[in-house]
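Q: Hi! First time asking for a complex rather than a single chain. Here are the components, and I think there are two in total. Is that enough to go on?
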Amino acid sequence: MRIIVDAMGGDHAPDEIVRGALLAKKEYGFEIVLVGDEERIRPLVGSEDVTVIHASDAVTMEDDPTTVLRAKKDASMFVALRALANGEGDAVVSAGNTGALLVGATMLVKRIRGIRRAALALTMPTATGKCMLVDCGANVECTPAYLQQFALMGSYYAERVLKIENPRVALLNNGTEDHKGRELERETNALLKETQKNYIGNLEAREVVMGGADVVVTDGFTGNVLLKTVEGAGLFFAGMIKGMFKKNLLTKLSALAVKSGIMELKSKMDYNETGGTPLMGLSRAVIKAHGSSKAVSMKNAIRIAAEYVNTGIIADITRDIAKLTVEGEE
Amino acid sequence: MRIIVDAMGGDHAPDEIVRGALLAKKEYGFEIVLVGDEERIRPLVGSEDVTVIHASDAVTMEDDPTTVLRAKKDASMFVALRALANGEGDAVVSAGNTGALLVGATMLVKRIRGIRRAALALTMPTATGKCMLVDCGANVECTPAYLQQFALMGSYYAERVLKIENPRVALLNNGTEDHKGRELERETNALLKETQKNYIGNLEAREVVMGGADVVVTDGFTGNVLLKTVEGAGLFFAGMIKGMFKKNLLTKLSALAVKSGIMELKSKMDYNETGGTPLMGLSRAVIKAHGSSKAVSMKNAIRIAAEYVNTGIIADITRDIAKLTVEGEE
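A: Yes, that's all I need. Here is the structure of the assembled complex.
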């Protein structure tokens, strides 16, 4: 397994990214290719046996995803994606600008034939376990046909990577009845009823968080709102709980008693533990790590990249999507 | 102040609804008009001096909002709205089907001249206080012009009812930059920059929950997702905290120490404490109480209805909207 890492992407690049890559090398024995500013990367690598590909530029969070590929064609992210397209590795992992990664991967690595849009499939903690949210930010405007494909791809991921047997697929909606939602939801619901295995219908956001489905399909705008709301609510509650325990000596002592519980709660909500999320629908494995990734979460993202490659999902989607695509349209 | 109450709306109708109305009468001295099945309501009222208007039918949560006004024209909700339109009271409060209330109020009570859509403006708890979310469920498909009006109406409400001076108005988006969002957000952001007082720009859902704005504008589909996600996250965390304290004797004892903190947290997240939320943009006061309202939350919703009437918001919106509306279009 040979993983190409965008060493310049994310809030803590390159230091934490390189450290994470070296952790993955040590723990899983993967070959590592680091892409980025060689002068900054070499000292971080030391005597470790990794390949470094120099890239003179880097995509920042402020760059406009739609134009940055032309403006910064030698950015580490794009050099990494080209290396993947050329077969110099099995997967790319980047903690950089999500939109730029989507555009770059779509242009340089290409989608699976028949796939209309690559989607970001994030694993979200729920009250009963976890669920896949597809799309959670890549495509802000979607059609029913996109969402139909997201359902198929998310279902494979839940089955193969999260090891959920017969994952329950639902459509995020503002009610469960068939007439609920925008035109997008009404049409998608009808489409999924016909085509998607284990489709359980419309699901409200509240039930999503409570664990009502294993795969939740939505457009990238709404998915982003759901995800960021859960993140915000996590911070909100964590702050309240902190305040609750800080009141006096007695409450401080009780904090000690439930310490393990608090740690558990924290780890459940910690996105760094999850690590990475694949851009599904591409012809090769491209994994987005969280922008605030530190070493451990980069290591986890790299492990997820390898798992994604090993499951053979890409081949399965390639085969199945041909059946879904209506003759003559693409 | 004379409040017309839909006695048959909500999960706990008519018992809790009537009890709540009687509480409001006692506590605030309002005149109460109860609308619904007289045979069921009379025994609940006892010797109290309230007006009862008989209605032979009731809207249920399962009724389709778009057709129920024709199908059940004698439902308590619609009888109440007609009474309001006829000047038989100052406000209607209903815990019934939101969509039906919106359609019914729009048809029977009418919008303020120039207002394109009535919107549901909910007060949501945040890390630093509360914020108004408009629209949080009434209009699933919106235009920039609708959202522009939601901003204006929400801003008035935050100022007059929540008593927030110079409320900060933001647009819910998947990022802060101008290029973020769907066409709806990009156009609305440009429009609000030009016209809305104290407009602070795009805001991500995470920052909304953390208290980044006092008024958050979005379409009713996305608003519903945000709101229901916060609700779900609240239940999710409450469950985890419960589990945390239930582990052993020591953790159970510490639960006692932080009991007041837990109660505070619970009350902050409890929608029953908030009570009711106005359908803004109508020519008269129509207040939606939470579907699961019990007596105390109905009482609060009735108090909110009176406050809404007293602030004179409707007159202000009527005046200001004329300035916003472009000549020749409506």
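A: Residues 70 and 104 of chain A are 10 Å apart (CA to CA). Let me know if you'd like any chain examined more closely.
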